[in-house]
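Quick log. Single chain, no ligands specified.
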Amino acid sequence: MILFYAPDIESSFALPQEESQHCVRVLRHKKNDIITITDGKGNLFQASITDPNPRQCLVEIQSKEPQQKSFNYNLHIAIAPTKNIDRLEWMIEKCTEIGIDQITPLLCHYSERKVVNQERLEKIVVSAAKQSLKTFFPRLNPLTDISQLINNATEQQRFIAHCYETKRLDLANELRPHQSTLILIGPEGDFSEKEVKMAIEQHFVPVTLGKQRLRTETAGVVACNTAAIINQLAENLKI
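-> predicted structure:
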């Protein structure tokens, strides 16, 4: 199945320009063809093409089917952008495929990259979500200062993954299923000691992601997959 993305489909009855070009010029859809569309908010639409214009493909909605989220937890990962932006883009793509609700690029004391192309990263989210046939798209937040994020966090369980030789717990042992979760992943130079202290004071639990030292982007994917596994096990065991 090929999935098109139109966040305002119920009010515009049209595909965005990039989706219109793909639909009409690449896939060569014609008038009256039936296509499948999602708004990224959990709805799946069957629609008939009324005007196959590559600038704005107009459609008539035939049916709307609310979908269930493919995972039963709420996961937010805040991660410092890598110096090589390709690595962050890879992490965003893979976490979207696995299942995540929010991704926040994080500005830290030791951050080597302090600017991100928000529009490009959002396109990666959309592309990965469409390819994995998701109808709930994760929210990509703007670059946020770590102190602001820590002080405004509302998730039920909060973790900070760092590499200092202090007491840290294993994330896999500490994660509780079916709860909203925020995990902080630092830059290549790690969080500063001040940032770790600030997080702990705001009830973040310091954790490790395993015995191996991981690259920033790998840590993001491991954290995302750990949450997925813990929650899937809980669901299988009816916990």
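The first helix runs from residue 9 to 12.
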